[in-house]
Task: structure prediction
Amino acid sequence: MNFRKLPKEKRNQLVLVVLLTLMAVIGLYYTLIRHQNESLAKLAQQKTAAAQKLQVVQDTLRRAQPIQAELDEIRKTLTVAERDVASGDLYAWVINTINKFKASYPAVELPQFSQLGQAVEVNLFPNFPYKQAVLTIGGTAHFHELGQFIADFENQHPHIRLVNLSLDATSASPLAESEMLAFKMDIVTLVKSNPS
Result:
């Protein structure tokens, strides 16, 4: 079939049919196919995002057991560390702790104990999970023995601080040794906020 040999009316009709068909195909593409392609692209993106989320969840599940084991180990370490943190009857706990430790230092006399203050928020760190309580003690000792007592006490009890130490020479009585010092200091101890 030769296009030039067709009558003009048939040729116009054929061109019109081809144009209408072409317009129909283009119209179908823009109305249906393009919309479907966009939907498929969105679904592919959603599938990729879901696969990434699934991978994160699977990685977390794989790490869950080691994380739980690490958490259990940290809890055990914390429980051991909290043995030196005051709980229960705070005044009795502090007095017993001091007296047990002082037994190894007979040359250090501790006859004065004040009342234990209320447990208050720790003033060193914000949002600290423990509270603190303060007790003032006073006594007498030789300078070297007092220094050794304080150093050993703070090393053995890391959750207790000895602060506000004041020293005075004891010259009030002639029978007192000339090298003896009277001391007074505050003992600041951590207190479990919610003892369990």
In short: Residues 1-84 form one domain. The helical segments are 8-81, 90-102, 143-156. The chain has a mean pLDDT of 86. The longest strand covers residues 130-142.
